[in-house]
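Please check these two lines:
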Amino acid sequence: MIMKIFLDIHASVLNPFALDVGAQSAVEDLLREGQSANTLASYRSALKYWEAWHGMRYGLPIQLPVCASSVLQFIVDHAQRISEKGLVSELPHAIDMALVSGGYKRKPGPLAHNTLVHRIAVLSKVHQIRSLTNPCHDNKVRELLSRTRKAYAKRGVLPNKKDALTKDPLQLMLASCDDSIRGSRDRALLLFAWASGGRRRSEVANADMKFLKAVPHGFTYTLVHSKTNQAVRDKPENDKPLLGTAATAMTDWLQVSGIVEGPIFRQVRKGGQLGPALAGAAVRDIVKHRSDLAGIDGDFSAHSLRSGFITEAGRRNMPLAETMAMTGHQSVATVVGYSRAGAALSSRVARLFDDL
């Protein structure tokens, strides 16, 4: 018996200097499972684009590690620069149109600067995970990316940001929600996302009854997992209050829908029948639909609820620490940026001349 145990142990002894196939597979499974669905989707999209671009540009399938010269070519193919002919980039028109027709690009032309940087970052991450020589760390690549960013900034090309849904436009959107089951859901969803600290669309789509707790004058919602708490640490600020009008809207929705367990926000089918949980994209669509119904000028998305909450807090000079506890932001600079934007129009300094 002892000899058998010894032989079994000996057979399972591993090489400490290299992972075996099973362990490597387990590592990749854990890395994948620990990543958010939205991030994985964006990674897949970026890698598919790299494969398509490389295949069309070089006539060869992409292989890792990618060489630095290919990354440099990718940058000049997709970034605009000033020339005698105006703004140009190096991607041949035929390849550009093929990428569009293949569904790899939405429209012809250079990529937005943020998209270009994201595509490079995804390629870098793949090399990092696989412990390969990283072409994105090449000095020429780093320098070109840095100069490209500065060139775009000098031309006044700013990131495309959606408008913030502050209280006034949000109230107009809420007024478009009638007492139907769909109207009740949308009202509760908008107020839940905004009033609980500006929840991300994935957090709204994944909201579940087991984390919603009735308290005096409303509810608390325990945000177990978020972009800034992916390790699921138990922290006091995980409990987000839902009070006042937001609590009333949630109560009405739960009564109308009859939901007592599972996803809070669900599809509403014809005849008022409830379907499965909403997807993150559906949260964006609801924001756009309600802004259209309300006739509000502006370009809104699901993130507008988050930026709108922070901007409104800035307008009212709410304490920064309290705002960050609600939103879950870890970067003071990010929150201050929104807060200053909100506070700018109500700033006393802006009226310094008139106050003389």
Notes: Residues 167-346 form a domain with the hpI Integrase; Chain A fold (CATH 1.10.443.10).
